[in-house]
Amino acid sequence: MTLIIGIGTRRDVTSQEVIDAVSKALEESGYSLNEVSMLASAKMKENETGLLNAANTLDIGVQFIPHEILNRYKSPTISQASRFGLNGVAEPSAMALSEKKELLLRKRKYGRVTIAIAE
To answer: Tell me: the pLDDT tens digits for 31-55?
Structure first.
């Protein structure tokens, strides 16, 4: 199984917040870190140091998806990203990079981090 973790963050989130959120989401959904092939987020998050450092610590690549691609995917849950002109961040990011386009974990908030998992 090849999982994509979509991540939305509040500004200036710490790497530990991201790592903890990823760990909790995987634990709650019954998956492990070695099943994850990529982290994904919105292009506007590409300079978010906490997210970049978390990806480095977890030894998983992170890809930042352009907004026009994110908006091709309908987010099944209401997102605060609408204020940035986006349908969502976590769910659309995960779906955009996933092979099967199947959402395995709808977005969940873990403090200042939102996680969704797709296959």
So the answer is: 999 999 999 999 999 999 999 999 9
DSSP of 57-85, one letter per residue? HHT--EEEE-HHHHTTS--SS--GGGGGT
Nearest C-alpha neighbor of 5 from the set 34, 51, 36, 28: 36
- Measured between its terminal Cα atoms, the distance across the chain in Å is 7
Strand order in the sheet with 36-42: 62-65, 36-42, 3-9, 113-118, 103-110
Comparing C-alpha atoms, which of 109, 88, 99 is closest to residue 118? 99
Token reading at 52: 């970049």
Q: Which of 68, 55, 61 is nearest to 96 (CA)?
A: 68
How far is 5 from 117, CA to CA, in rounded Å? 5
pLDDT over 90 for what percent of the chain? 86
Q: Which two tokens stand for residue 118?
A: 């797709």
Whether the CB-CB separation of 53 and 17 falls below 8 Å is answered with: no
